């Protein structure tokens, strides 16, 4: 699967930024479709292709990880969740939900989803699991740093900046730094899923070192 070029990614990135700022922005873009506006049509197609790519990458991770009944529960909870916490070791006697094998506490980690559901996994799978989280929540993850920064800006916080001006400020901040960093991270995630993840064996028969 080919990664998006940076120019196309920027179109999609700022689409998500605008949607987060203005709940009616999607309707604005859709109204452009009715007028057969070339820019709106192209943007909608780019966003659709982006979501298709995202879906394929999620499916690749889920196919690779989904080997036990508990795995499906973990992956489904990620899709519905709003937050996940990670702890650096697994409780004694824990079992990895991806392999069904007992974990040495130092080799495992505990995940708590929405402060309710807890799972333990072998740390070897942590990158794949958190890449799945990232992709499932991609629109929010891509723009997270943008809105952290905006909340530090006096004019935005006090309603003295309109949305087009704010978007321009975001683009100009350190030469489009937010989009560049988001693009680099997404590229690394894609590379991991396509090139590195297949080498991470799931059905390991290694014994737990007591």
Describe the structure.
This protein has nine helices and three strands, in the order H-H-H-H-E-E-E-H-H-H-H-H. The protein has a three-stranded antiparallel beta sheet, covered by helices on one side. It has helices spanning 6-21, 25-34, 38-65, 69-80, 126-136, 138-150, 154-157, 163-172, 177-196, and strands at 84-87, 108-113, 117-122. The model is unreliable at 205-210 (pLDDT under 50). The termini are far apart. It has one domain (6-198).
The gist of it:
This protein is mostly helical. The protein has one domain (6-198).
Lay out the secondary structure.
Layout (H helix, E strand, L loop, with lengths): L5 H16 L3 H10 L3 H28 L3 H12 L3 E4 L20 E6 L3 E6 L3 H11 L1 H13 L3 H4 L5 H10 L4 H20 L14
Helix pairs in contact: 1-3, 1-6, 1-9, 2-3, 3-5, 6-9
Kindly list the characteristics that best describe this protein.
mainly alpha; 59% helix; 3 strands; three-stranded antiparallel β-sheet
Number of structural units classed as domains: 1
What letter string, H or E per element, gives the SSE order? HHHHEEEHHHHH
Radius of gyration, in angstroms, nearest whole number: 20 Å
The best one-word shape is: elongated
Q: Looking across the biggest beta sheet, what order are the strands in?
A: 1-2-3
Task: Summarize the amount of helix as a percent range.
Answer: 55-70%
Mean pLDDT: 87
Total E-strand runs: 3
């Amino acid at each position: 699967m080919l990664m998006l070029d940076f120019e196309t990614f920027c179109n999609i990135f700022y689409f998500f930024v605008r949607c987060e700022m203005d709940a009616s922005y999607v309707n604005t873009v859709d109204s452009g479709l009715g007028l057969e506006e070339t820019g709106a049509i192209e943007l909608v197609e780019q966003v659709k292709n982006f979501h298709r790519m995202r879906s394929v990458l999620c499916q690749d991770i889920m196919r690779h990880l989904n080997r036990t009944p508990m795995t499906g529960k973990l992956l489904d909870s990620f899709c519905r969740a709003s937050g996940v916490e990670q702890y650096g070791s697994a409780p004694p006697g824990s079992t990895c939900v991806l392999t069904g094998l007992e974990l040495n506490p130092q080799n495992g980690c505990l995940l708590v989803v929405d402060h309710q559901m807890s799972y333990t996994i072998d740390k070897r799978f942590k990158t794949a699991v958190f890449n799945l989280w990232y992709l499932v929540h991609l629109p929010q993850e891509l723009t997270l740093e943008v809105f952290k920064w905006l909340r530090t800006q006096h004019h935005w916080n006090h309603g003295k900046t309109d949305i087009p001006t704010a978007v321009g400020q975001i683009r100009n901040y350190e030469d489009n730094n937010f989009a560049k960093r988001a693009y680099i991270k997404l590229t690394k995630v894609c590379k991991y899923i396509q090139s590195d993840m297949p080498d991470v064996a799931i059905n390991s028969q290694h014994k737990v070192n007591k």
